[in-house]
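Hey, I was hoping to borrow your eyes for a little while. I've been puzzling over a protein and I'd love to understand its fold better. The fold is given in discrete form, as structure tokens running alongside the sequence. I'd be grateful if you could look everything over and explain what you see. No rush at all, and the record is pasted right below.
>
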Amino acid sequence: MFNIQHRTFQALGYARNPSFATGAGEFTGDVAAAERRGGRDMLDLRATKAQARALKRKRESKGDAHVLDGENAYKGPWAAYADPDSSSSSDDEPSSDDEAPAAAAAAEPAVPAPPVEKSTFHGSVERDYLGRTYMHVPRDLDVDLNKEPGEQSWYLPKRKIHTWPGHYKGVSALRFFPKHGHLLLSAGMDGKVKLWDCYHKRELLRSYVGHGKAVKDAYFTNDGTKFLSASYDATIKLWDTETGQCISRFGTGKTPNCVRFNPDDDKQDQFLAGMSDKKIVQFDTRTTEIVQEYDHHLGAVNSITFVDDNRRFMTTSDDKSIRVWEWQINVPIKFIADPQQHSMPTAALHPSGKYVAAQSMDNTILVFGATDRFRQNRKRVFRGHNCAGYGIEVNFSPDGRWLMSGDTGGYACFWDWKTTQLKSKFKAHDGCLVCIAAHPQESSKVVTGGLDGKICYWD
């Protein structure tokens, strides 16, 4: 009965109201059309055998299969009706010809138009008394935001100092502004990307709307003036951080799982995207064209990590393997696989550049060498959290002393990098903790995001 009423509503615009017994109307939707048709559903509107025979008689003959052109040319199942107007019945006498286009409309819903990109400024003041926007690094703080990240020792956070309401669905990615960290970029499963202020009023500065489905990943350029957003609507978009303008659009028709700019300053016009069709695609932002494809994986590509002074990059995939590639060469130079190895959804490079930590689906974090000998370091395995079934981010403190990750129970976990011991674990979110990132300049600031839609700031 539910399927019949569902088809009736999709095709004719009305259906029987399940709340009719409580005093509501008998029909919901287009009540006028329901009255016109006497409340009949798709089952009642089915043509009788006599109506089907009458309709068949009005159809032109199939013709002769030996004749290609002319009067008696072969039409086969494509033969039209002799009198198209008479083949359709009135609303009171529906036939199978009424049901055919309705059923076709129900089977093939219209493709929605792609959303129009727009951006809204939500901050209290867009420019200060000198005409500078929020892109300017503040200098009226107790901390110097212009020094090199990792110069000072980093300590474990103890308490929550702020909560951003974030997104009405889960948070999928969190990115601090490169080097300075005075801004925070968040990507949500509500299809929006938002920019937050980490100092002063800690308010929402700007929202970027232009994706039709959940945003999977976001990533800044080196100077932070632009960023990429990858979504489940199979598009990648390049945005201007300050103005909110959508600069370019990229896509292959498949879902992008991760996006990464080349960290070299002279290669900021090219980025890599790990796709769901087992490929890593390299785009040029100047022409929006594909300049290279890396296609040796056997499953969806989950993460991309640049190593060895950015001359190479490591990728993880659903095929439970790691491959190492030379930049712009579609031949992997290293293949890492093991019968006991699990899928690794996320990975992060150690600040020293010598190691890569990868989140494994067997509730462990594995470590691999990131120099010439790309192999697993079996003495360093981090345990103590539960991550199976979720793509939970793994990250490092700026000085490299601490490894951090999330937990399906909403816990934030911190390990000592040298001893692999779990040093701190506290409840941070009601749902699964998906994203975690350390502030590049502060000595103990951490931001976390979870499936509950909240973004929490810890110190």
About this structure: The two ends are 56 Å apart (CA to CA). The longest strand covers residues 301-307.
